[in-house]
Amino acid sequence: MSIYEKYETVIGLEVHVQLATASKAFCGDDARFGGAPNTHISAISLGHPGTLPRLNKRQVEFAIKLGLALGCEINLENTFDRKNYFYADLPKGYQITQDRQPICIGGSLRIPSGEDFKTIRIHHIHMEEDAGKSIHDQDPENTLIDLNRAGVPLLEIVTEPDMRSPEEVDALMSGMRQLVRYLGVSDGNMEEGSLRCDCNVSVRLKGAEKYGERCEVKNLNSMRFAKRAIEFERKRQIDLLESGGTIKQQTLNFDPATGITTPLRDKEDAHDYRYFPEPDLPPVIITEAYLKELDQNRSPLPWELLEEFQSTFGLPLYDATLLTQEKTTALYFKSLCQESKHYKAAANLLINKILPEIQEQKIGLAEFPLSQKQLAEFVDLIQSDKVSNTIAYQKLFPALLKNPNQAPLALAEKMELIQSQDEDFLKALVENILAQNPDKVKAYNSGKKNLLGFFMGQLMRQSKGKANPKAAEELLKELL
Question: Distance between CA 152 and CA 32 in Å, rounded?
Answer without folding.
Answer: 9
